[in-house]
Specification:
The complex is a heterotrimer of chains A (about 290), B (about 1050) and C (about 140). Chain A contains twelve helices and eight strands. Chain A has about 290 residues and is of the alpha/beta class. In chain A, strands 2-1-3-4 form a four-stranded parallel β-sheet, sandwiched between helices. A four-stranded parallel β-sheet of chain A has the order 6-5-7-8, with helices on both faces. The longest helix of chain A has 17 residues. Chain B contains 26 helices and 59 strands. In chain B, the strands form 20 sheets. Chain B has a five-stranded parallel β-sheet with strand order 8-5-4-16-29, with helices on one face. In chain B, helix 17 packs parallel to helix 23 and helix 20 runs parallel beside helix 21. Chain B is globular, with a radius of gyration of 31 Å. With about 140 residues, chain C is an all-alpha fold. Chain C is globular. Chains B and C meet through strand 23, helix 21 and strand 48 of B and helix 2 and helix 3 of C.
Chain lengths: ~290, ~1050, ~140
């Protein structure tokens, strides 16, 4: 299978490890994944006002280029990009008048015909590969690791573009089970991490990280698994900063799902880029005996 | 457990020798191996008989689908008029959802105690055929001539043989989740829904039965039979009533944020009812599902799935506010240390005594928080933390409770769409059956001849369901009114025993294990045999079973018995059955006595065999002592004048008259105004469909004027009244003339009126301060000048110390009028000041949302202790500008709003003339002037005085839909005595010993049924003595107990009989 | 006494195209604010409500009552558009879009909430890019 991939800005900078580990997984699965040509920033947040079409331009351009490359599917690793691309895609389908306006405006681009399907990598793994396939390939089961899945906002809301049920998602739980880990449920798994407030309201985000993590720790979790690069930063980096703000608080390591899959599959841990994390994720893996190196 | 002896090896069903394959493997082996060996012999015969298959046909008058409280009420109403009813229910028993409840609001009556007598009455009614475990398949034909196809599933248990002893369920190896207990417990594959089920026949759940035959092996009466097969039945009727009830929404697909199905301690309100119920999974104790301990705190979340335009249903479920208050107050009263909080948006305590019930719950310590929780989560100790905003304090809070109860939406029965298709009637968007026209014909479905009753048309509580069911009965009788009627049962002629010495027969009941396991029935029998005058005494398993009753009849004839005593349960349970048995044996039914050795003995002394036995012996001896003095009593028959007087010619009165006329009964409408129409004449339109009042009243008036069965006396008032049920004579004042009329029954439909606001909110001091009615009249006559700022103030004179009740219709009226003003004057700004938004009826919540969104009405909630203040311009108070000061309870700040039109939603009270009417009719009225019904839940349209009924706003303010349902219901109730043509009074009436009577009137005061009057003494007309009206007397005995001179004796319970009983009870020798 | 104490925008000089605040908001986001019956679900579920001066349901109420000071509230800038409120609202009102509309009213008058002139080297290198784009998209006109 050949898959076209949309990276988005962050995957090329502060979340390089997410991309690397994902590529390693595709390699192990025997599928080809190729970065699409001529992509641009997705725009990050979908426009929320009815009259605003300008902010859809950047996103739409990417979808057009996917069509140009003769593909019908585009997979992304970044939750934000996924959400934005999906929302624009949906808007174009629901309001053909808006699509026509944008097509006319972007006169130097081809017209978007509405054929592209946007997939998050997790969706791809669940629907097109199948977690049972991954389970069979597991060499180092994550036995003894009590992991709390954290979804954040963008994967599940709004409902029209969600990859799983908005109140009771199970995709990460199923994945963790396939990898052999113990799943810790947490009512905060679908709450916002703080998002862009990490720039101007650092303490607010540290507060969030503390709340989310504390709940996980109370229920016995050793680690958190998530998929969004911004969530990772907020829980990991700002979470570590929260250690200074709260007594007896220790931030637990935060993993990308792709890193955990890579470890479980026995792939070269270099692809995981664990050194980029604030709270050392390797320590826990070693402690649980998952990780020999 | 007695086992059958299989030495003879004969199959008891087929009478053929048993093959060796009769004896199955042990149940465990079958479950293990998952095999069910076929019983060749029986299967062959059954198949052969099935091939002969003839469809059973039943000829009847009305078919009722669904035997919950609505279905049962409709069935009884129709059957009492003499028509034949077939009633079916898809479960194996009748009772519906009402039997699942513990207590009912606002009276806190035990639910099963109020429903069970109706269930028993229905099962014994000679005109009603009950088919349970049956469902409807198809319908064809037209009104007056329908053919309905029913599929009756087999219970595989012979109803004539089953005694309800429970031996089979004890040995059944299969356990499945019990839907009756709302999945909180398990039941076996052979089961009875609940202990008081009617009919008391065990049912085999074929889908889960593994065919091991254990039940068959232990069934003593040999009631298990595979020959009892499912069958198709064709019922020919003239009308159909659909009363299939409701289901409760389970938030597993939608509204998952409340954790139902995920967290152990989150349950629905109906599950909580099962916990409270004495025959539920915890025997009435409130226990947490996770650890079966008493919870220290419980929370209720209202509107789960209701009032939701996404992830739920848009309508209001109407009963949840009250049932949550009920459940909370019951739990709190039983366990005052539990912390209870109800999270709500509005508390819709709209009905009669509801607001007072809600106030009482608050006094008990139930906390109410206005805030809809966002989500809940479970803590490691399984307690639930709720996150919410207390909108009245503005604080975001978290509260942890041990148990969370979700008040989920009332949903239409899942089967509705299929039933609707089968019958050819339409279902609305939410799945409830559609009525022909909400505001003019709410009971008529979309197909003529098929009527709706109860929650099937929309969520509603028990009194509203029962009223509507009676209304459906009235409408169902219309197409069949000319059919032959069957009133009462035919019995053989009575034998005169007055000259005979007492020959008493005593039948002592085991009641299965209920009595026999706790006292020595053999000993009781032996001791009783020794008593003088006892000619026969025996004990049996179940005296109420058919073969036992047969035995009573046979023995009576054989031994020449002239008194019968049954020592068993309460007379309330089977008293009527035994009396009928006596009559079938040719004996007067009052020659019967019951000794309650169950409820009064074995049930309460279950831990002391000897003491219980002695007490039972004493009780039976006491009954024998009385029986010696029992006399045959007669029930006086009264003729019924076939006409009904309807007092009040508003919509309720008119609808009642039309319903009666459709049933072939004449009526007189007495209206004090010069024209018919009532309050609606002055109103503009009605919510929620904005129908103009002319379009409602005028067609009715036209219909009435054309109908020869209805006499209209307008501009008339009832001046004098004498008589009693069936025999009333009245004098009507029409202008200056007085006219005499005769009638048999009376319907009170006198309506209500707005209270005099007496200067409240400066009413009367400024020309621009109006009541809702005044506003509507002005709008109707185009007499309103364009206002800029309109402010509605709801609950004026309501829910305060003077009048603690809610006016029920005010919220709806204010929304409707806000819409009217906004439509007429789009530039006006409209504010609505309210305390609770109580729009609970069908389509009302949606109407409310619509008005807010499309007409931009701003609602401001004010607290009960900070009422709005109306400030007039000092220089020009009569016509000048007005300011309203209101405290916004949600923003927690005071606002001052300018107004050039202020509309007050005044509370309501009983119609004028209530005082005079109540004295004439001898009926009670409450402090607000509304008439008091005999039973708040199941007899909302009847007075305690027989022959008088009520409907509409005279009972309590209500909207048009509920008024019409009640009006048609009252017509049905008033028609029953008329349809029966003759009426029998009670036998156990009181009788005055005139010579002893002092004429003090104490008995008159004591009588709840207005059956006693003072009349001139026959021997000295200057003196007054009491006189009992046998038509009204119900035989309660209060007068006999109250009389200071012992001048009243109650037949069947006279002083001699009671004294003899007491003496025999206490002294063994005296009993001889 | 208003709960809003910030003075970010001069509301007196605020000229609204539609005159009333609620009409302006409704045009921008297409949501009918009058449908709100103040149940409090949105506020209870909002992750940042404890730091807000006006809770989301109060914001809606202020808009309906045409209190322009709502434009000065911290709330509309603290909202991260996580959609929790919109998903749970029983009246099916998309409060996220309402917050955006309020932000846009200010931003379209060329008033920027964020004037991020200096970013430290460490921040540039560690904070994910998407946070910056998001910030600028949300707070800059």
């Amino acid at each position: 299978m050949k898959l076209l991939y949309y990276p988005g800005c962050t995957l090329k900078t502060s979340a390089k490890n997410l991309e690397k580990s994902a590529f390693a997984i595709m390699d192990a699965l025997g599928h080809e994944i190729a970065e699409m040509e001529d992509w641009n920033c997705c725009g990050v947040v979908s426009s929320l006002t009815d009259d605003d079409l300008m902010h859809h331009l950047a996103t739409l351009r990417n979808l057009i280029h996917v069509e140009d490359q003769g593909e019908e599917k585009i997979v992304t690793l970044c939750d934000m990009c996924c959400n934005t691309l999906k929302q624009t895609n949906l808007r174009m389908k629901e309001k053909p008048d808006d699509l026509e306006t944008l097509n006319l405006f972007m006169d130097r681009e081809n017209d978007y015909k509405g054929t592209v399907k946007v997939l998050h990598f997790l969706e791809f793994l669940r629907d097109e590969v199948g977690f049972s396939v991954l389970k069979k390939m597991v060499k180092n089961p994550l036995k003894g690791m009590k992991i709390m899945p954290y979804y954040g906002c963008m994967l599940l809301r709004p409902r029209e573009v969600a990859i799983d049920d908005a109140e009771e998602p199970t995709i990460m739980k199923d994945l963790l089970k396939a990898l052999g880990a113990d799943v810790i449920d947490n009512p905060f798994k679908i709450e916002c991490c703080g998002s862009y407030h990490t720039i101007e309201e650092k303490n607010l985000v540290s507060n969030r990280a503390n709340k989310i993590t504390n709940f996980a720790i109370e229920r016995g979790a050793d680690a958190i698994m998530l998929s969004c690069p911004l969530c990772r930063f907020n829980l990991d980096v700002r979470g570590k900063e929260a250690e200074k703000m709260y007594n007896n608080y220790k931030q637990i390591p935060v993993y990308y799902y792709s890193q955990l899959i890579a470890v479980a599959l026995g792939l070269d841990p270099k692809c995981c880029g664990f050194e980029d994390h604030a709270v050392d994720p390797v320590l826990l893996l070693k402690k649980k005996g998952v990780f020999e190196k | 457990m007695p086992l059958k002896s299989y030495d003879k090896k004969i199959d008891h069903d087929l009478g053929i020798p048993l093959q060796d394959d009769y004896f199955y493997d042990e149940p465990e082996e079958i479950i293990e191996n998952k095999t069910m060996p076929e019983l060749e012999s029986t299967v062959k015969l059954v198949t052969e008989r099935a091939k002969m298959g003839k469809k059973r046909t039943i000829q009847a008058d009305v078919l009722i689908i669904g035997a919950g409280i609505s279905g049962m009420q409709a069935a009884l109403d129709v059957a009492d008029k003499g028509y034949k009813v077939v009633i079916i229910d898809k479960t194996s028993t009748i009772g519906g959802a009402m039997v699942k409840l513990d207590k009912t609001f606002p009276t806190n009556d035990c639910s099963i105690c109020t429903a069970a007598p109706k269930m028993v009455e229905l099962s014994r009614h000679p005109n009603i055929e009950l088919i349970t475990y049956a469902d409807v398949n198809s319908l064809e034909g037209k009104p007056g001539d329908f053919k309905v196809n029913i599929w009756r599933k087999s219970k595989y248990v012979d109803p004539d043989k089953c005694t309800g002893c429970d031996d089979c369920a004890e040995v059944c190896p299969v356990e499945i989740v019990n839907p009756f207990d709302e999945k909180l417990s398990t039941r076996k594959a052979i089961y009875i829904e609940f202990p008081q089920a009617v009919p008391i026949v065990y049912t085999i759940d074929y889908e889960n039965c593994i065919g091991c035959g254990s039940c068959d092996r232990v069934c003593e009466p040999e009631a298990i039979t595979f020959l009892e097969k499912s069958e198709e039945i064709e019922v020919s009727v003239g009308a159909v009533i659909v009363a299939t009830g409701f289901e409760v929404f389970e938030p597993v697909e939608m509204r998952k944020e409340y954790g139902y199905g995920k967290y152990d301690n989150v349950i629905t309100a109906l599950q909580f009812e099962r916990l409270l119920s004495s025959f539920g999974p915890t025997e009435g104790k409130v226990r947490r599902p996770s650890d079966a301990k008493l919870p220290k705190s419980i929370g209720w979340i209202q509107c789960v799935g209701s009032r939701s335009e996404q992830l739920g249903f848009p309508y209001c479920s109407r009963v949840c506010c009250m049932y949550a208050t009920k459940e909370a107050s019951i739990a709190k009263e039983a366990n005052p240390e539990i912390d209870i909080t109800i999270y709500y948006m509005d508390i819709r305590a709209y009905g009669k005594d509801f607001q007072q019930y809600y106030d009482h719950a608050k006094e008990l310590g139930v906390k109410y928080v206005r805030g809809r929780p966002s989500s809940v989560y479970e803590n490691p100790d399984k307690s639930i933390t709720i996150k919410y905003k207390d909108t009245l304090t503005g604080k975001i809070e978290e509260n942890t409770v041990d148990m969370l109860v979700l008040s989920t939406a009332i949903m239409p029965n899942k089967d509705n769409k299929r039933v609707g298709k089968a019958l050819g009637i339409e279902v609305d968007d939410n799945g409830f059956f559609k009525q022909d026209s909400l505001l003019t014909d709410p009971i008529q479905s979309t197909k003529k001849g098929i009527f709706l009753a109860g929650c099937i048309q929309g969520p509603k509580d028990i009194p509203d369901s029962v009223s509507m069911a009676s209304g459906a009965a009235a409408k169902a009788v219309a197409p069949i009114k000319n059919r032959k009627k069957h009133i009462g049962k035919n019995f053989p002629p009575e034998r005169d025993v007055s000259h005979e010495k007492p020959r008493i027969g005593v039948f002592i009941c085991h009641c299965g294990k209920n009595i026999a396991n706790y006292l020595d029935v053999e000993k009781v029998t032996e001791e009783t045999k020794k008593l003088p005058n006892v000619e026969f005494c025996d004990h049996m398993m179940f005296v109420c079973s058919e073969d036992s009753c047969k035995k009573i009849k046979e023995t009576s004839k054989e031994k020449g018995l002239n008194r019968v005593i049954v020592a068993a349960c309460s007379p309330r349970t089977h008293g009527g059955l035994f009396q009928d048995t006596l009559m079938e044996a040719g004996l007067n039914k009052y020659l019967f006595e019951m000794a309650n050795i169950r409820n009064h003995c074995s049930w309460v002394h279950s831990d002391n065999w000897d003491a219980a036995t002695k007490k039972a012996i004493d009780l039976v001896r006491s009954s024998v002592a009385k029986a010696r003095h029992l006399q045959a009593l007669s029930e006086e028959e009264f003729s019924i004048y076939p006409k009904t007087l309807i007092i009040g010619g508003g919509v309720s009165g008119m609808k009642a008259a039309i319903a009666l006329a459709d049933m072939g009964i004449k009526s007189i409408i007495l209206e004090k105004e010069p024209e018919l129409g009532g309050r609606l004449k002055n109103l503009h339109s009605m919510f929620p469909s904005d129908t103009k009042t002319e379009d409602i009243i005028n067609p009715l008036i036209k219909k009435i004027n054309k109908n020869k069965k209805i006499t209209v006396m307008a501009g008339s008032e009832l001046d004098e009244l004498e008589g009693y049920i069936g025999n009333y004579k009245g004098k009507v004042k029409q202008k200056d003339k007085k006219k005499e009329i005769e009638f048999g029954t009376i319907i009170v439909a006198t309506g209500f009126k707005e209270i005099d606001l007496k200067g409240k909110y400066q009413y009367g001091k400024n020309t621009n301060i109006l009541t809702q009615t005044e506003l509507e009249t002005k709008l109707k006559n185009n007499d309103l000048k364009e206002p800029k700022n309109v402010i509605f103030i709801n609950c004026a004179g309501a829910m305060d110390e003077e009048r603690p009740y809610c006016c029920r219709v005010g919220c709806g009226v204010s929304i409707k009028n806000a819409k009217l003003i906004s439509q007429k004057y789009p530039k006006s700004k409209v504010y609505l000041l309210y305390r609770d938004m109580r729009v609970f009826g069908k389509e009302e919540e949606e109407y409310y949302a619509d008005v807010l969104k499309n007409y931009h009405v701003i609602t401001i909630r004010y607290p009960s202790d900070k009422k709005p203040e109306v400030i007039l311009d000092k220089k020009n108070p009569k016509n000048g500008s007005i300011q309203i000061k209101v405290y916004d309870d949600i923003l927690n700040e005071e606002m001052t709003l300018p107004a050039d039109l202020v509309v007050l939603t005044a509370n309501t009270e009983g119609g004028a003339g209530t005082e005079k009417l109540k004295n004439m009719l001898k009926v009670p009225v409450d402090s607000a002037g509304f008439f008091i019904e005999t039973h708040a839940k199941i007899k909302p349209l009847d007075f305690s005085t027989s022959g008088v009924y009520m409907c509409g706003a005279a009972h309590y303010p209500k909207n048009l839909v509920d008024s019409i349902a009640q009006a048609e219901g009252a017509a049905s109730r008033a028609a029953i005595p008329i349809a029966q043509e003759r009426m029998k009074g009670e036998g156990i009436v009181s009788e005055v010993i005139e010579d002893k009577c002092r004429g003090c009137g104490t008995c008159v005061e004591a009588c709840a049924y207005s059956a006693i009057d003072l009349i001139p003494y026959s021997k000295d007309t200057a003196k007054m003595v009491a006189s009992v009206n046998r038509a009204l007397c119900k035989g309660c005995g209060s007068c006999a107990a109250a009389c200071l001179n012992s001048a009243i004796e109650q037949k069947g319970y006279d002083s001699k009989q009671i004294n003899v009983m007491i003496a025999a009870l206490l002294d063994e020798e005296a009993g001889k | 006494m208003s709960k809003v104490t910030e003075k970010f925008v001069d509301i007196n000089s605020m000229n609204l195209k539609k005159g009333e605040l609620v009409k302006e908001v409704e045009e921008l986001c297409g949501e009918n604010l009058f449908g709100c019956y103040q149940c409090g679900t949105c506020s209870a579920g909002c992750p940042y409500v404890e730091d807000m001066d006006l809770s989301p349901d109060e914001v809606i109420r202020y808009v309906i009552l045409d209190r322009k000071e709502v434009l000065n509230s911290k709330t509309i800038w603290l909202c991260s558009a996580c959609f929790t409120c919109a998903e749970r609202c029983p009246r099916d009102i998309n409060i996220t879009k309402i917050m955006e509309a309020l932000r846009q009213i200010i931003l379209r008058k060329n008033i920027d909430k964020t004037k991020l002139t200096k970013i430290t080297k460490e921040e540039k290198e560690t904070i994910p890019q998407l946070a910056f784009v998001c910030l600028f998209r949300k707070n800059v006109g």
